[in-house]
Amino acid sequence: MSGYQEIMTDPSYAGQIVTFTFPHIGNTGVNPEDDETGDPVAAGMVVKWMPTQSSNWRAVQQLSEWLAARGRIAIGGIDTRRLTRAIRQQGAPHVAIAHNPEGVFDVAALVASARAFPGLTGLDLAKDVTCAQSYRWDEMRWAWPDGYKTQTNPRKKVVAIDYGAKRNILRCLASAGCEVTVLPATATKEEVLAHNPDGVFLSNGPGDPAATGKYAVPMIKGILDDTDLPIFGICLGHQMLALALGAKTIKMNHGHHGANHPVKELETGKVEITSMNHGFAVDGQTLPAGVVESHVSLFDGSNCGIRMTDRPVFSVQHHPEASPGPQDSFYLFERFVNNM
């Protein structure tokens, strides 16, 4: 019933319209504390039922008001489970949503607009959602009763590369004891090492990993070749690391999205309940020598994690900071800190 605000503000959803299968979307309202970035990034929202009056002690605004104030369109009254079955069978469609208070639409133009959409393959969207300049992050995870606290005693220095980083990932790094400096997606190896970090984090983000990799992969290769720094990647960062190590990525039919995705850690046999958002995946069959598959999806067996066998370098496809488990995957941040 919750999480829709975090999804709509997740930079990984840039260029995409999100369909929610759970019928009661909007019932808990919205509040500024739950934004993953400054404004909604997803292009639109599709729901089954129009949101009712919100009922939650943290709510400060209705979902429909929040969307309108931020210029994001949504449509209700859709059979979202039928739409989900169509997406599952045919792949993610190219669509258009339009609003006219008088109910007059140029359907032919809307169809042409949807057909003209180039798709995500070949699109570098990270450059559209990354930060414009570097900044420091010291806010930790939300905790009762004080909300967000500040990290005042960090143990390790981390440079986080922002391909579309969610705020809660940065909070998890701070809560794990890190002093976090965030750099834009186009940061070079020299710019990263100028901060003298103890480790490098590669964030989530949208678009085709091969397109973003044109400038991201050389930087990561430089870090791997010239240092022994620990590296941790999530989502697009996972795919960037895999490409830098010599593996390949592939476009999925409909991707993995939303909460409650079971992922198995192969070394321990542990199953984690995870949150996912990706339309591309690392091809586990292309991993080079010295790199092993660490996690797999129990839905379809697709790759959900890799690690180097002789160096403190690893990454996962899912979102441990989203906490659908709720604490199943926080150990990954602690592992990164322990590696440093």
Query: What are the segments in which pLDDT stays under 50 over at least 5 consecutive residues?
Result: none
**SSE order, as H and E?**
HEEHEHHHEEEEHEHEHEHEEEEEH
Average pLDDT taken over every residue: 95
Silhouette: globular
CATH topology of the largest domain: Rossmann fold
Can I get a quick summary?
The chain is built from ten helices and 15 strands. The chain is of the alpha/beta class and 340 residues long.
Report on the architecture of this protein.
The chain has two domains: 4-116, 3-Layer(bba) Sandwich (Glucose Oxidase, domain 1); 126-339, Class I glutamine amidotransferase (GATase) domain (Rossmann fold, 3-Layer(aba) Sandwich), CATH 3.40.50. α8 (209-226) packs across α9 (236-245). The strands form three sheets. The chain has a ten-stranded mixed β-sheet with strand order 4-8-7-9-10-15-14-13-11-12, sandwiched between helices. A three-stranded parallel β-sheet has the order 1-2-3, with helices on both faces. With 340 residues, the protein is of the alpha/beta class. It is globular and about 60 Å long. It has helices spanning 4-8, 63-69, 80-90, 107-116, 126-129, 167-175, 189-193, 209-226, 236-245, 331-339, and strands spanning 17-19, 44-46, 73-75, 135-137, 139-143, 147-150, 156-162, 178-184, 199-202, 231-234, 249-265, 271-282, 291-297, 303-308, 313-316.
